[in-house]
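User: Lipoyl synthase. Structure?
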Amino acid sequence: MIDLPVIQPETAAPARPRKPDWLRVKLPVGQEYAAVRRLVDEHKLHTICESGNCPNMGECWGAGTATFMILGNICTRSCSFCAVATGRPTEYDLDEPRRVAEAIALMKVKHAVITSVNRDELKDRGASVWRETVVLTKQLSPGTTIETLIPDVKANWDALDVMISGGQEVISHNIETVGSLYRLVRPQARYDRSLEQIRRTKQAGHRTKSGIMLGLGEKPDELYQAMDDLVANGLDILTLGQYLQPTKRHLDVAEFITPDQFAHYREEGLRRGLKYVESGPLVRSSYHAERHVNVPV
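Assistant: Predicted structure:
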């Protein structure tokens, strides 16, 4: 008898989880969306709606609102979840605050969200542009409320003081994920440093907000610990949303969290002392942001 070689079957790559129906979104259409699109293009503005591939862009722009990204569209960080380009920024436009403020006035925005890339190469992290953007927006649109979603200042607390001094109603800084995943998700950031940034913002008397992406491999107990850490550091408002892989070069989705689980996490966050929790598969930092200005400080 001749022994035939045993042919081992090829090991199949693990199947990626299939995107569920509840994550399907409509393409942006309509006159209101087109009007915002035109203003953004005409004024050469950067929006995180586009750079971050936000699934709510159609809904938000259709309502005549947008989240503006200042200080260019190239980030000095290389977070493994983010679609914003990484590199050496070349743009530093001191006239940008005026252009953003004028666009917000033209669009008659009732509530504006302003964010930015990380500018670690700038001594003040871009703080002067941050403050001037808020101040000019308030001058041109005194009835407009503002949320600023500010980046990690790398413990430059003088820069933070300038960033949060413009008169905005909500100051947000996203911790993005649980502590155990920081090296994977935010390799140039630190969990404890982001918590301290939130604590210092609260101590200065401001309404504080943060956001976490789910589906990166975090465990429920780790999320609960993050909620407790945020409450202990003075957080008022938390957003929870599903991580979606922007390109194949970015982190894979480990799990799609169900709407029922998001609802459970919302209740758990409120039970643990958060004043407001926005929780759902398509929730992003600026989703329903106009509601957050009424949260008690």
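The chain has a mean pLDDT of 87. Residues 127-140 form the longest helix (14 residues).
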